[in-house]
Amino acid sequence: MADLGKKYCVNCLADVTNLRLRCTDCQDIELCPECFSAGAEIGNHRRWHGYQQVDGGRFTLWGPEAEGGWTSREEQSLLDAIEQYGFGNWEDMAAHVGASRTPQEVMDHYVNMYTHGNLGKACIPDSIPNRVTDHTCPSGGPLSPSLTTPLPLLDISVAEQQQLGYMPLRDDYEIEYDQDAEKLISGLSVNYDDDDVEIEMKRAHVDMYVRKLRERQRRKNVARGYGLVPAFLGRDKKEKEKTAPGGGGGGGGGAAGPGGAAVPAATAGAASSASSSTSAAPATPKRKIAKEERELRAKLRALCQFMAHREFEEFFENMHKERALRAKVRELQRYRRNGIARLDESAEYEAARHKREKRKENKSEEGKDGEFSAIENLSGFELLSDREKVLCNSLNLSPTRYLTVKTIIIKDHLQKRQGIPSKSRLPGYLDKVLKKRILSFLTESGWISRDAS
């Protein structure tokens, strides 16, 4: 019953009801922690006597400045709870500490006092020398993507999820790349009698499994970065049909969202108004891709699996800039060869060069127009091909006579192929030289076969 009242230190008369040190050799000798630490001696009591700690359970370990007023008994219950339930199970730990403490209070107190406080700084070193660091998987690296970086979830409808076998809550597929990869480690277990060879073999299996997981994650990154899932679902084609003139549907309950799900009409109206308000802002026009660049993209498509989509586009954009710079360098070199040293002189040079090229084109067109001046005004000239015009002009033969001879020769050739004897006669103005030239021309052009000629 004497322990129920207040207790005082026999040396300094301080209140020691919460915590005191009692001498086991002397009667009624109880000291405060400060006097006990200083080695106080009173009467027959000596500093080397045995002692006993008497804890009332209401003192604080962290002093009066600590938040929450945690008592020593609560601190002991907290340490017992974290040893029993493990770090992170704050609800079970709060129930173990007492009903007066919430899970949030338990988490904040342990993190602030034991992890980030003086105790954590003294017990947890900043750098652990024997910790293994993975240098082969840098964050954001194109050739070795990180396994810990979560990907954004696919915004697709329920029907499309079933089509893909996609599980959005886990961000996994029913059939993954290398579906049997887990078989490498599913049967592994660490036994106390394993020798070094067996341990190394099990480590090799784990390493192989990690490599397969990295490859699986890399393929997911490629699919997300290059938009392969919408392409597989045909969403691009559907969006083009909706945006085509007359392809969009009329009013109804709502509009189709990005995942194919229906969006309420109010939401769709708000989105349309927002888009109309922002449509005034100038959008950055996309550069038109030339035919050569499209062909080069098709050849280097295999690089897509080693580069992110952004890096792939930057690669081709830099190639386009390189070609533009090379063309500019060649142009400046051409100016230098022609004695131009300033840019303001280049405009005059280009204007003069353009005039020279225009005169050359006009001369060539005039030469072409005067090439068939002898027969271009005769009847039947428009029925001749370019090669036939050259032939008639070189033979000094009118188009009408040439067409007549051509018709007779082809008619005789067709009758001979059908076994009908030909009775047609060539005109008198056609001598042997003209006939031979015309027959060779028709043979080279494929009108008649060589055996007939």
Automatic annotation (TrEMBL):
Composition skew (Gly residues), residue ranges: 245-260
Positions of the SANT domain: 65-118
PROSITE patterns named in the record: MYB_LIKE, SANT, ZF_ZZ_1, ZF_ZZ_2
Annotated CDD domains: SANT (cd00167), ZZ_ADA2 (cd02335)
Taxonomy, superkingdom: Eukaryota
Basic and acidic residues: bias regions: 234-243
Location in the cell: Nucleus
Keyword Ligase among UniProt keywords: no
Domain ZZ-type: 4-59
Name the UniProt record assigns to this protein: Transcriptional adapter
Originating species: Conger conger
Source species taxonomy: Eukaryota, Metazoa, Chordata, Craniata, Vertebrata
